[in-house]
User: Which sequence fits this backbone?
């Protein structure tokens, strides 16, 4: 099992209910692939550095996951097909950082 930190950027036009559904769908995808969501942070609605699909803001969500690295490509296919997900990134790390992150502090 490898450690990954993932950020998913979702459309600002979705409702809070749909946002929760999308995040649950992602967590279920991890769990069904013998992975584990270690921790998660909601960074909220934030400004984008550049426009994506004419949006200047988006919902950011941060995940710490443990999963076999070979299964990441399957996730990418699923995430690319979802219109509500604007961008995502998977970063392999040795150890997960302690939460909350600096971005969580910025929200307060």
Assistant:
């Amino acid at each position: 099992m490898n450690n990954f930190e993932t950020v998913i950027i979702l459309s600002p036009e979705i409702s809070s209910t749909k946002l929760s559904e999308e995040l649950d769908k992602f967590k279920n995808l991890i769990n069904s692939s013998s992975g584990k969501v270690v921790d998660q942070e909601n960074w909220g609605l934030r400004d984008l550095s550049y426009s994506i699909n004419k949006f200047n803001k988006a919902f950011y969500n941060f995940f710490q996951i443990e999963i076999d690295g070979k299964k990441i490509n399957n996730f990418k296919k699923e995430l690319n097909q979802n219109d509500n997900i604007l961008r995502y990134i998977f970063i392999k790390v040795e150890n997960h950082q302690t939460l909350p992150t600096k971005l969580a502090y910025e929200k307060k």
Observations:
- The beta strands are 2-10, 36-52, 55-67, 85-93.
- DSSP finds three helices and four strands in the chain.
